[in-house]
Amino acid sequence: MKKIGVFTSGGDAPGMNAAIRAVVRTCFYNNIEPYGIYEGYKGLIAGEIYLLTSKDVGNVIQRGGTFLKSARCKEFHTKKGRQQAYDNIKKHELDGIVAIGGDGTFTGANIFNREFNIPFVGLPGTIDNDLFGTDYTIGYDTALNTVIEAVDKIRDTANSHNRLFLVEVMGRDAGFIALRSGIAVGAEAILIPETQTYINELVAKLESGTKNHKNSMIVIVAEGDDAGGAYEIAEQVKQKCPNYDARVTVLGHIQRGGSPSALDRVLASRLGNAAVDALLANKTNLMIGVVNNQISYTPFSKAIKHHQKLNTDLLDLAEILSY
Ligand code: ATP
């Protein structure tokens, strides 16, 4: 291994810069030249591939987003696009690639690896925490902290006016952000795609909160919930209980930005380092994660086929503590 390329792909997540930095610095430690590929597969196809210096990754560990930029690239879905990417890898004599992204990124890498046999390893970079083969993904903890900070502020105003707030959080079709943040902010209810939402049950819960003289009520709604988004659910609640002063906040992309938390910086640093070590040890076509605080390796084929399961203990805890 003389040259390794690194890119970020799919949705950005806080901590991606810390991961790139760890890849680059580990390369230098092993006398390998690190190459930054800009905008994910798009840059691989366009040949936007540049040698990185140690200085390029100075002062980035604390920054959100990704300085290599990220993109979604339709051309990589085509054989022609992937051939172009292969030609560029050969042109730059890259011996291995570190791809930081989500399951789409790993699906592309898996297909590419089968076609062209270029050593690829993946790092889980997504705030959604839905990837199989790792307990935590890069960006998840920071997103959680962002949600918590925002909802704490909403709680202040909700308390002052005895209001019900429905707060919609990200996570696509998974409820990790909603469940953990809901527990952390003491939400009265948490609605997630993994469990069926019944509006009657939600209303009963809210009414019991009113009877218990709660000053405010917060319902965390995962964006992928089966009953709809926070606006739709608020409407359904209002139809059943017109006396509720229900307000809606959709947190949106604020959850994807910001300086990465300590947990994300350390996770990204460990994974970036492990990615280079894996390529040096001829481990390829797999995602590197952390399971029980140990580095773990999951073949792309497995990582993209399964989804991480929600911890049902946390579901029970949320239920008990919301009374
Ligand atoms: P996030 O979880 O943040 O959305 P992701 O990696 O899942 O991240 P996607 O947009 O799904 O994001 O995938 C990133 C890129 O991977 C796509 O833009 C595309 O270039 C490539 N890709 C995804 N699926 C495939 C596929 N089936 N074949 C080839 N390339 C793919």
Automatic annotation (TrEMBL):
Keywords associated with the record: Allosteric enzyme, ATP-binding, Cytoplasm, Glycolysis, Kinase, Magnesium, Metal-binding, Nucleotide-binding, Transferase
Leader peptide range in chain numbering: none
Pathway: Carbohydrate degradation; glycolysis; D-glyceraldehyde 3-phosphate and glycerone phosphate from D-glucose: step 3/4
Binding site for ADP: R21, A22, V23, V24, R25, R155, G186, A187, E188, K214, N215, S216
Any one Gene Ontology BP term: canonical glycolysis
Subunit note: Homotetramer.
UniProt-recorded name of the protein: ATP-dependent 6-phosphofructokinase
